[in-house]
Amino acid sequence: MESIRVFDEKDFFACCGSSKFAQEMVLSGPLSNYQQAVDAARDIWFNKVDVNGWLEAFAAHPKIGESPSQKSKSSAFANWSKGEQSTALNTATDSSLQELVEWNARYWQKFGVVFLIFASGRSTPEILGEMKRRYNNRPIVEFEIAAQEQMKIIELRLSKLFSLEADATSKAKSDF
Amino acid sequence: MESIRVFDEKDFFACCGSSKFAQEMVLSGPLSNYQQAVDAARDIWFNKVDVNGWLEAFAAHPKIGESPSQKSKSSAFANWSKGEQSTALNTATDSSLQELVEWNARYWQKFGVVFLIFASGRSTPEILGEMKRRYNNRPIVEFEIAAQEQMKIIELRLSKLFSLEADATSKAKSDF
User: Fold this and answer.
1) What region, left, alpha or beta, does residue B121 occupy, with left being phi > 0 and alpha being psi -120 to 50 degrees?
2) Is the separation of the CB atoms in A93 and A99 below 8 Å?
3) Cβ of residue A129 closer than 8 Å to a chain B Cβ
4) For burial by CB atoms within 10 Å, which of A111, A116, A128, B51 has the most?
């Protein structure tokens, strides 16, 4: 039998920095498993969070290649961002990091939002290539791609949330 | 021979309340005729103005069925809005106006932006029908539809700008 996980807004806010997203995730619960959480998240992110909410969520991300801001509203969010960028940071050279900084600025100048990418397991050259390719898109097209990438990030973080919770549960049980 | 019209940011801001749009229109000039202005506007609005600029432009519109705000940044914009809504206002009854107010609120609640429609020549029942139909859309779909409607508004207002200017020119000539 599956146990029912009860998460709060803070947990979901660490998965996606839109307040509406976090609120709606709580309202959709209790969620009995990871797949149910992903289904709810997908519906909420694409159908209920409005464009202001998308912008809020995008703004919660550090620029790719940069450390999460100290001012991040969620420390779990900041730690996860860091972990997801670890491959990129390990494969970065001084010159590719410099190029990333320059393209981040150029991207921001054109689109007015951070470049958002599901970075897990991706090298810096790979990310740079994507950024240069996507730079040619129209702003609204990029906006939708960023939302798709955000959804991948949400899925990854929900899986972390559920496995963390499972670890905690089994630890609690073994304490008896 | 066509004369070259020189318009300033203020003129273009009255056509579309995005500062970037107005700036880029000036940079794309001088515009020798209406069609050239529409082509430039289309390119700027869809390819250069980012999502923040779209939101800025949408926020410049009064809610449909309501008078333009006294705080409007452009009096030409406010007057044109009023003119474009005249059919709607002339065909409105107390109850349909009340319904419009209710649906405006509902729409705002879901999408976080005003309901934007090319209102010229459209009756209140027609506008209400569109609002109810479009209410079912996903936020990103609505956002793109609103941008298309904004483009129609831009075209209409550019035509007003060019004919006003033509009137002024011929008046100036007849004054000789």
Assistant:
1) left
2) no
3) no
4) A116
Cα separation, B127 vs B152, in Å, equals: 15
Look-up of token digits 């449909």? B64
Listed residue (A90, A103, A93) closest to A64, CA to CA: A103
Min Cα distance B23 → chain A (Å) is 15
* Residue A53 contacts residue A20 (beta carbons within 8 Å): yes
Q: Are A40 and A161 in contact (CB under 8 A)?
A: no
Torsions phi, psi for A29 (to 5 deg): -80, -175
> What is the reported pTM?
0.88
Which chain B residues have a beta carbon less than 8 Å from that of A112? 50-53
Name which of A65, A70, A75 is nearest A17 in CA terms.
Answer: A75
- Chain A CA closest to residue B52: A112
Q: Which two tokens stand for residue B150?
A: 């904004």
A55 touching B (Cβ < 8 Å): yes
Q: What are the counts of helices (DSSP H) followed by strands (DSSP E) for chain B?
A: 9, 0
Model ipTM over 0.90: no
